[in-house]
Task: inverse folding
């Protein structure tokens, strides 16, 4: 298989043409880097200058495709140029070849070329003055440093920054990939957890419903059918309560993800004591019967968030927490609701003695979502009372006949 020659980049073609045309312009007006008759000029006259100029322009075509080859040939062209009257364009194109060899060449060359050119610059700055004993000989080292070491060092700096940017981009891509993998794993873990909870909490109720409904359909005995229907109703009630509880867990962002650890209204006393420890003057009046688990969880969270808001924003005075059972609000009565749990938390509304903590409003949004999930409603805002202006949070949570312990 024949090897295809490296293809020149479009920008490299423009660079080669610009260098060649610029060199021809300088040659045409007779501007050379050395006057005729100098001892170093072995090929005197104007025409020998064109040979290294043309070779150097050709090397520019390979500055990106084959940087080391271009630099090697360009070095030979530069040596040939020093034996003629010279052309400034040839010298400038060589500096570009040195820069491109470090920037686009292999990593080993990128670090080796600056070292070599740096040593040559130092040697050129030390040896000629020591041999010729003339201060002007220092100009040789300066010229070599400008022509060789300067472009090589610049190319190394640019390459280092480019490699660092590429490494940062790769790290960002890897971080995004790991984050996506973590997200997929978290979704899979959550699905598996919910599958376990559905099996443990709901599947047994559905199994009991299926068994007793089969018995009620297969046996022609009114008492047996009535007993089976009672069991079916009990399991459907409990299964519905557990399902709504799972939905509440999915919507809960407070971290209580395990159903066994979900708080109930039995923990209101400890919650109020904690608020008192934090400096609130809280009174609790709770009068309720057996409640479904979702209602208990929603009521507990509403009281908890209201006490937190009172601790952050309320003025000095008493905070009152009241829970009471009552008739369901309209239009919920037409759907056969048995009653409702009313949760009321009031606190003084006004300037407080200490600093006021900033609020984002997410707490009120969360409480309204909890009430809406149970087909209830929640209102929060300032009110006038006999004790002055207060901030009141009032939630009405319907309690259906699906409550454990409710009517059969």
Result:
């Amino acid at each position: 298989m024949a090897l295809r020659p490296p293809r020149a980049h479009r920008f490299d073609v423009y660079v080669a043409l610009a260098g060649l045309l610029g060199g021809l312009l300088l040659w045409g007006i007779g501007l050379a880097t050395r006057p005729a008759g100098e001892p170093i000029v072995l090929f005197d006259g104007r025409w020998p200058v064109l040979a290294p100029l043309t070779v150097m322009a050709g090397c520019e075509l390979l500055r990106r495709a084959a940087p080391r080859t271009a630099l090697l040939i360009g070095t030979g062209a530069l040596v040939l140029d020093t034996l003629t009257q010279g052309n400034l364009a040839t010298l400038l194109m060589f500096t570009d070849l040195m820069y491109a060899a470090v920037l686009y060449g292999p990593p080993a060359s990128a670090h080796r070329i600056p070292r070599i050119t740096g040593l040559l610059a130092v040697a050129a700055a030390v040896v000629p003055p020591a041999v010729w004993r003339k201060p002007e000989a220092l100009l040789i080292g300066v010229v070599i440093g400008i022509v060789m070491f300067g472009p090589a060092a610049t190319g190394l700096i640019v390459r280092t920054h480019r490699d660092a940017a590429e490494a940062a981009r790769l790290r960002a891509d890897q971080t995004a990939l790991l984050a996506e993998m973590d997200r997929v794993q978290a979704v899979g873990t959550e699905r598996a957890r919910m599958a376990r909870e559905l099996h443990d909490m709901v599947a047994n109720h559905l199994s009991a419903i299926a068994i007793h409904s089969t018995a009620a359909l297969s046996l022609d005995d009114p008492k047996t059918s009535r007993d089976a229907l009672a069991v079916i109703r009990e399991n459907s009630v409990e299964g519905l309560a557990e399902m709504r509880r799972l939905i509440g867990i999915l919507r809960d962002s407070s971290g209580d993800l395990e159903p066994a650890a979900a708080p109930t209204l039995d923990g209101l006393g400890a919650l109020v004591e904690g608020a008192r420890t934090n400096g609130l003057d809280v009174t609790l009046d709770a009068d309720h019967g057996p409640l479904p688990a979702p209602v208990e969880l929603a009521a507990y969270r509403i009281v908890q968030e209201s006490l937190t808001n009172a601790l952050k924003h309320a003025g000095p005075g008493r905070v009152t927490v009241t829970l009471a059972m009552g008739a369901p609000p309209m239009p919920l009565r037409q759907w056969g609701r048995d009653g409702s749990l009313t949760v009321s938390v009031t606190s003084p509304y006004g300037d407080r003695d200490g600093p006021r903590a900033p609020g984002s409003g997410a707490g009120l949004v969360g409480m309204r979502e909890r009430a809406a999930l149970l087909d209830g409603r929640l209102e929060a805002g300032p009110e006038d009372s006999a004790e002055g202006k207060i901030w009141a949070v009032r939630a009405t949570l319907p309690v259906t006949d699906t409550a454990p312990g409710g009517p059969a």
Q: What stands out?
A: The beta strands are 281-287, 318-326, 339-348, 377-385, 388-399. The chain has two domains: 10-171, 263-350+361-399. Residues 10-171 form one domain.
